[in-house]
């Protein structure tokens, strides 16, 4: 292998799916308009994004679309005044959207709540007034340690409405992980719940929140707001802790929306690995708002009749952009579910789709693979005919997982729109539209206004079919504006390959210009000089009907340098034995050829994952080699 970072691409996928004629006819953007948008964005990228910004409301327009004099600290819509909540809520109250459903929420026990835009607007105003009464002001940080509840959405919007900065922490994180994030942003207020329902159990969340507030953490947090979800007895500290309903009961349902500078921070979202200080990704009001609105409405072809469901927890960037802010900016209806997808049985998601008439279903490959284990029997029990679009996010989706989703959930009528983006990018970057030709497993092409390349470590473009490092070559509106109190660490994104944004992913571009994600840059296996992305080998395993989930790592090999080892979770009804190992190795050889040497296969009942559902290959490697795994508390890679 050369030292350039090039990868060998062995997996081929020849299936191409054309959009149904009716989809093309009804699409908001037709193929000619998409091509024109690509040309316009290529010739005048700032003009393209200015046009996107004009679709939203501003208190004051910008002096310039992009201020790049302090690159890589780019400032979009410099000089503008705005507030994302004005566009997500306030402006809809003056339109026909006022009485449209904004949010449909279902709890795990089966309880539900619905909010129109007007009702949500008034709830946000009440809590915004409550926050101000607690002394929260513009620029203060508010940590929201909450499960998927309507109050989670209300808390985010109310915080942003008054100009404070919200930082969501996934409710599955430990007290230590919560404490670390509170300390990093020096939060003034913590919002949590007494508990929540998960897989038939009540999780006591207030207890964990209390455990986090010790030492310096207790000194910066002045107040804690507690939502009564499960009505379990919780200890309340006098003068510090307040029940949510007690606070909002007497508040007015009108509240002024703070006028924000375009570059003012909207939220922090921490992302980290197994070691080191979590990175506090910062997104700001203006650029994030424009990028999320344009990319979500384009990719998912949002229509007035849509009911959009992103299954992501609000604690992840997908929950922010595709679960809350994006749908509200678009004026559509979104669904939120509190509990476990398999409770009380493996048809819960399909039951929700059928009962509420969900039209767009956006989820992660991990979820699809988990549900694949139970076969097609559960989706067949429900009427899924309301669905018109399916989406995937979070990690590469294997062609076979893509096809299962397309056939069994989409009835071979709903395109599967696989999207590539990150916590750092804020918005969709590479994705098809409903009118696109689709290749199962590919994220297709960059969206208009987004420019990417596949390069070696020196920044040289790789030829079609050759894998390399994915980079973004020009700034985009929803990009992070920095890392909280860590400018040097932020600059590393732009210095690993000078002049471009280093995404940390490996990919290849095929002869049609389609992008195929091959995994993270540190998940590359070097077999006899051939650098192969682990995602490619995993996709080859997934071609066998017995395989539910698989993780592939590189292990030392005296002859070839490295060989692949696979950790496999089998579907129900298949036996983990020597015969199955031979079958799986044969499948991989047939899919990839003799280069992909699989040294061993180990069967497992489950694989270690991050809280957002991504497989922790390095944990498997450390276990297998007898190395220290390290502290996994709060691991939340995005």
From TrEMBL:
Q: Where is the Acetyl-coenzyme A synthetase N-terminal domain?
A: 36-88
A single GO BP annotation from the record?
Answer: acetyl-CoA biosynthetic process from acetate
Q: Where is the AMP-binding enzyme C-terminal domain?
A: 536-614
Q: Which UniProt keywords apply?
A: Acetylation, ATP-binding, Ligase, Nucleotide-binding
Where do the AMP-dependent synthetase/ligase domain residues begin and end? 96-484
> Mind telling me which GO cellular component terms the entry cites?
cytosol
Molecular function in Gene Ontology: acetate-CoA ligase activity; AMP binding; ATP binding
> What EC number(s) are associated with this protein in UniProt?
6.2.1.1
Which Pfam families has this protein been placed in? ACAS_N, AMP-binding, AMP-binding_C
Describe the family membership recorded for this protein in Swiss-Prot or TrEMBL.
Answer: Belongs to the ATP-dependent AMP-binding enzyme family.
Name the UniProt record assigns to this protein: Acetate--CoA ligase
Q: Which organism is it from?
A: Pseudodesulfovibrio alkaliphilus
The gene it comes from is: acs
């Amino acid at each position: 292998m050369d030292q350039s970072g090039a990868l060998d691409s062995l997996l081929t996928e020849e299936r191409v799916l054309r959009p149904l004629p009716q989809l093309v006819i009804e699409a908001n953007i037709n193929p000619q308009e998409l091509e024109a948008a690509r040309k316009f964005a290529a010739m005048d990228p700032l003009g393209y994004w200015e046009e996107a910004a004009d679709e939203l409301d501003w208190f004051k327009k910008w002096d310039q679309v992009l201020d790049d004099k302090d690159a890589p600290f780019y400032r979009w819509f410099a000089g503008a005044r705005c507030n994302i909540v004005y566009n997500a809520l306030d402006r809809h109250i003056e339109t026909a959207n006022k009485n449209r459903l904004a949010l449909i929420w279902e709890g795990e026990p089966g309880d539900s709540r619905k909010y129109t835009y007007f009702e949500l607007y008034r709830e946000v105003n009440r809590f915004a007034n409550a926050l101000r009464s607690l002394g929260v002001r513009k620029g203060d940080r508010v940590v929201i340690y909450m499960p998927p509840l309507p109050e989670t959405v209300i808390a985010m919007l109310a915080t942003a409405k008054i100009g404070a900065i919200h930082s969501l922490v996934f409710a599955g994180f430990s007290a230590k992980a919560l404490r670390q994030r509170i300390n990093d942003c020096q939060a003034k207020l913590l919002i949590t719940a007494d508990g929540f329902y998960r897989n038939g159990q009540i999780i006591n969340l207030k207890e964990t929140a209390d455990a986090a507030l010790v030492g310096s953490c207790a000194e910066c947090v002045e107040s804690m707001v507690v939502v009564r979800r499960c009505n379990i007895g919780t200890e309340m500290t006098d003068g510090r802790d307040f029940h949510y309903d007690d606070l909002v009961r007497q508040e007015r349902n009108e509240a002024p929306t703070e006028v924000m500078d375009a570059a003012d921070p909207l939220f922090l979202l921490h992302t980290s690995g197994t070691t080191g200080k979590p990175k506090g990704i910062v997104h700001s009001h203006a650029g994030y708002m424009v990028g999320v609105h344009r990319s979500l409405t384009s990719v998912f072809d949002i229509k007035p009749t849509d009911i959009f469901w992103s299954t992501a927890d609000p604690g992840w960037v997908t929950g922010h952009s595709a679960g809350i802010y994006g749908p509200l900016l678009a004026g559509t209806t979104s669904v939120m579910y509190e509990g476990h997808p398999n409770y009380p049985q493996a048809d819960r998601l399909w039951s929700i789709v059928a009962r509420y008439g969900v039209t767009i279903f956006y989820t992660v490959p991990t979820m699809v693979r988990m549900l694949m284990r139970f076969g097609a029997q559960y989706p067949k029990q429900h009427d899924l005919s309301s669905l018109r679009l399916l989406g995937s996010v979070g990690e590469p989706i294997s062609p076979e997982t893509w096809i299962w989703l397309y056939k069994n959930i989409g009835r071979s009528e709903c395109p599967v729109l696989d999207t590539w983006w990150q916590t750092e990018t804020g918005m969709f970057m590479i994705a098809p539209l409903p009118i696109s030709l689709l290749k199962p497993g590919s994220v297709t092409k960059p969206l208009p206004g987004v420019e990417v390349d596949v390069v070696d470590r020196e920044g040289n473009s790789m030829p079609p079919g050759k894998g390399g490092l994915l980079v973004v070559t020009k700034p985009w509106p929803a990009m992070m504006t920095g890392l909280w109190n860590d400018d040097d660490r932020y600059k590393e994104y732009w210095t690993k390959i000078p002049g471009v944004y280093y995404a940390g992913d490996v990919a290849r571009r095929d002869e049609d210009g389609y992008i195929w994600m091959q995994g993270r840059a540190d998940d590359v296996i070097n077999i006899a000089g051939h650098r192969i992305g682990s995602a490619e080998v995993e996709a080859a395993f997934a071609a066998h009907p017995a395989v539910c989930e698989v993780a592939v790592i590189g292990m030392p090999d005296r002859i070839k340098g490295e060989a692949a080892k696979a950790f496999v979770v089998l579907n129900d009804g298949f036996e983990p034995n020597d015969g199955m190992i031979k079958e799986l190795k044969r499948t991989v050889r047939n899919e990839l050829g003799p280069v992909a040497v699989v040294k061993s296969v180990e069967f497992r009942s489950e694989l270690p994952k991050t809280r957002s559902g991504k497989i922790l290959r390095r944990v498997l490697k450390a276990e297998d080699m007898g190395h220290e795994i390290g502290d996994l508390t709060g691991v939340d890679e995005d």
